[in-house]
Please model this.
Amino acid sequence: MIVLGIETTCDETAAAVIERLDDGRGRILSNVVLSQVSEHAAFGGVVPEIAARAHVEVLDVIIADVMTQAGCSFDAIDGVAAAGGPGLIGGVIVGLTTAKAIALVKNKPLIAVNHLEAHALTARLTNNTPFPYCLFLASGGHTQILAVRGVGDYVRLGTTQDDAIGEAFDKTAKLLGLGYPGGPEVEREAARGNASRFALPRPMHGRKDADFSLSGLKTALRLEAEKIAPLSDQDVADLCASFQQAIVDVVFDRLRTGLRLFRSRFGSPTALVAAGGVAANQAIRKALNRLAFEVGTTLVAPPLELCTDNGAMIAWAGAERLALGLTDSLNVAPRARWPLDEIAAAEGARRRTAAYK
Ligand code: KG4
Ligand code: ZN
Model:
């Protein structure tokens, strides 16, 4: 089965063609990501209107490019998938409408993929990871620990009460005068800094639930920076290193609890899976590896370019859904908000209705 996937929920315009083999394994035939970072850099964050316009300008070229690279015509694909949300609504409209047009003209099934579900299922494309697994999803807008029990079957075990981890990295970078996106910048600075110079809090440490809270850490960092301003290059590096170490400790503690909750409800996970842009951070990956080893499971972390937003994950999630006959009508609406557990509830209802019929 061959599926075209389109991603336009944030500041990356991306498309890919993937193949899902009958045994459930996946293969990427082409995958192109065009980052808009330079268009937003001057504003220190993503400007929704600029993002939507930039998607319109390049999406058709990128789709033509991935089709050529895959050596594939529109007639040869089995379905068209686009991220239907959650995300910046202008961008979601661009990607989903384009997918609808292709589906309509070429008479192909349309799959409106939840962007978070696509991050959640990427480990199956890269590693063929069987269900159920424990997912740590950390990006610019989301921080969640989920039990992934099947396609469309997600149980949230923990989430953030305020900022997402990527957001905390981005805000820290902005505060310290570093570039956007902040995660890679903070990680680079942290590599030459002293992580024990500043005593920052580890919010929620030891709590019985698996939730996160990061705004207190962000404030503590700001206060430390204000105390010693103006900042030297070494101050910035030390603040980044101390901040990243605090995040690493928080992630380790919250996930250890998340895995405990997973085990008590669903038995042993097949793996601990990391997804989302933050999973590109090497210090966080190392901590996740250590934790997985400690609890007797393995860490599955997709290659860096598949952790951040891309079209292959959308195409793959589309293929997983298509294989189960889960397609969408051309009326499907783009969504700014679309929590993952809502998919589980909707599909549970669909299954119950089907059983009733
Ligand atoms: O998944 P993603 O590409 O887009 C969203 O759906 O949000 O994640 C982007 C986020 C940004 O907040 C970025 O700063 C963060 O992931 N990020 C990182 C790293 N690379 C990207 N955070 C920490 N360390 C990194 N190396
Ligand atoms: Zn994402």
About this structure: The chain has a mean pLDDT of 94. The CA atoms of residues 20 and 26 lie 5 Å apart. The radius of gyration is 20 Å. The first helix runs from residue 37 to 40.
